[in-house]
Design goal:
The protein is mostly helical. The chain contains 20 helices and no strands. α4 packs across α13, α8 packs parallel to α20 and α10 packs parallel to α17. The longest helix is centred in the last third of the chain and has 32 residues.
């Protein structure tokens, strides 16, 4: 029996809390303060305090449902536009910068793993951090589930999430600042990106911004049905091969293959991304609820340093390699943003800086990160193991 006000078996009450926390997170992103720290962090903070104040339990059957069902369900929903051929065709030099950033993340993770003592689960933490800094938060949790970090230590996972979000927020501020620094601009080629709004209009037409699409019941039902079918196939394939924990990887292969073969059909189901984002926000609520404040305080500082080392090497490698390949600074910082935050934050940065030509490549590289980063994270974790 737990000491919390709401007991673990009170499923309706717990789901009400999780959904409310997710809603608060989305609402906060409409405010300047919320957008600066992200709705995911706000959602986690809400359930973190509710859990540590004894209002909701730190463990409950509902949380297991989110881990075992909602997270795998959300992966294909976020990859309906992962058309590999389009990404290669339209991403241009930003794609080169993106892969340089991914390589910088891998190098940074390996170095951080040997420099920063993070315990016996360090190889798993290295896997999830490399995944999130190649693709985004969705890959952080997909990798955590595959290598079963969530089963080893929910507190460590929550501390890692907190450190990741804090370091990433500071890093985004640095990315926005770099192009305006005089001494940095003197190192890289002149920014000759045409500030032609036709590029922006083209990207908006191809990739409507999150939240602006007209919701359709038939589109929602198709997206959910396809995601469910692919999730079931992924689980079946993994079970047949005797590697059930890798189900998400097989599901990812299936959805990326379909998005590449049938781009017009899956690409028009833009509502899938919104549903996937909602499911991930509920998952952030579970992460916050599962965390013990003393464990977060214990593990948080060293994980902050661990993440900081990774991103420092990531950026230094990207800038040095980009200079050698004569890439422009805007291309490099947008690609780095796509590595860390995914398509939404990368596109937002390109628009905010009036680099309209980079909006579509930013989105495409961010989507590619969602598709590939979990493979990188799992592979690196097992390599370090």
């Amino acid at each position: 029996m737990t000491n919390s006000l709401i007991q673990p078996e009170q499923n309706f009450a717990i789901w009400a809390i999780l959904l409310s926390a997710a809603t608060i997170g989305f609402w906060s992103e409409q405010k300047m303060w919320g957008a600066s720290i992200s709705g995911a962090v706000v959602t986690m903070v809400v359930t973190f305090f509710l859990s540590n104040l004894g209002i909701i339990p730190s463990d409950a059957p509902a949380y297991n449902v989110v881990w075992s069902f909602l997270v795998p369900f959300s992966i294909p929903l976020l990859l309906f536009q992962a058309n590999i051929l389009q990404i290669i065709r339209e991403s241009g030099r930003v794609l080169i910068a993106y892969f340089l950033g991914a390589l910088g993340t891998v190098l940074g993770t390996i170095i951080a793993y040997y420099l920063v003592p993070i315990g016996e689960l360090g190889w798993k933490l290295a896997g999830v951090f490399s995944a999130t800094y190649i693709g985004g938060s969705v890959n952080f949790f997909a990798t955590a589930q595959i290598i079963e970090l969530n089963l080893d230590s929910g507190d460590l996972l929550a501390a890692g999430t907190a450190a990741d979000n804090l370091v990433m927020t500071l890093f985004f501020l640095l990315l926005f600042t770099l192009p305006s620094l005089k001494w940095v601009k003197e190192i890289f080629p002149d920014n000759n990106l045409a500030q032609d709004t036709s590029f922006l209009e083209q990207s908006n037409k191809s990739f409507p911004e999150l939240g602006t699409q007209e919701l359709s019941v038939i589109d929602m039902s198709q997206a959910l049905a396809i995601s469910g079918i692919l999730g079931a196939l992924g689980v079946s394939i993994a079970s047949l091969l005797g590697i059930s924990q890798a189900a998400i990887l097989f599901t990812t292969i299936l959805i990326v293959s379909l998005a590449t073969i049938f781009p017009q059909y899956l690409g028009k189901l833009t509502v899938a991304d919104q549903i996937g984002t909602l499911l991930m926000q509920i998952f952030f609520a579970v992460i916050g609820a599962s965390a013990n404040i003393w464990k977060v305080i214990e593990f948080g500082p060293v994980l902050f340093i661990f993440a900081g080392v990774i991103l420092t090497i990531h950026l230094l490698f990207l800038l040095l390699a980009g200079k050698l390949l004569n890439l422009e600074l805007p291309e490099l910082v947008v690609a780095s943003n796509a590595n860390l935050g995914g398509p939404t934050t990368a596109a937002a940065m390109a628009k905010a800086k009036n680099w309209y030509k980079l909006v579509t490549p930013a989105i495409l590289c961010g989507i590619l990160g969602y598709a590939l980063a979990t493979f990188f994270g799992v592979s690196l974790a097992n390599f370090l193991r």
